[in-house]
Amino acid sequence: MSRCPPGTFANKTSGQCEDCSEGEKQQECVRCHADCASCDGPGLDDCDVCRNAKAVRYNGECLAECLNSTYYDETANECRGHEPSSCLSCDIDRRRDASGHCVWVNQCSLHSYKDQDGECRQCHKLCHRCSGPGKDNCLNCKEPHFLLNSTCVQQCPVGYYAEDEDERVCERCHFTCQSCVGRHSVQCRTCKPGYFKQGSSCVETCSER
């Protein structure tokens, strides 16, 4: 057989057509990274399930243990807590505010910041929290805006995608994507110059079908 039917791929070892994993969208199978038991892309940070049962996932990567300043979420078998609003308790001289952030005990309330004289001043109107008066001093944004390099924008620019699961921020696309729906290599909408669209990935050379 010169070509396998859609939803299957050619196993080069056996020479047989085998079914692709459930959820495969491109009608071709791409091997997961060696650390992944299942994945949504070929990279080491594309794992959905880790091959090592004792490993934990952090941002799609399989690790031996959670990093400092993160905690283990047993339900999802993931490390969490890098988000500023994930704090359960705070260091000495800090308190947990209503949004889950750790702030200094004498820190100003939301929508305000402390100036050089120790006085609380109002943030820019787009900022939810801030470090100064300007529109480029935002720490996070009021809805429906997204944070991009300390500035609140209505929509993320080309090369970024909107991440609103925890903090509303613009995250950079995979380096092959011109525009995207997520950070992985298989979440491209359009490709950067020099790359070709294949399924939802951007590749330097198209593979033969």
From TrEMBL:
SMART domains xrefs: FU
Keyword terms: Glycoprotein, Hydrolase, Protease, Serine protease
Record carries keyword Protease: yes
Pfam families: GF_recep_IV (PF14843)
Name of the protein this chain belongs to: Putative proprotein convertase subtilisin/kexin type 5-like
Organism of derivation: Scophthalmus maximus
Source organism, top-level taxon: Eukaryota
This protein's record includes keyword Protease: yes
GO aspect biological process, one term: protein processing
Domain Growth factor receptor: 76-177
GO cellular component, one term: Golgi membrane
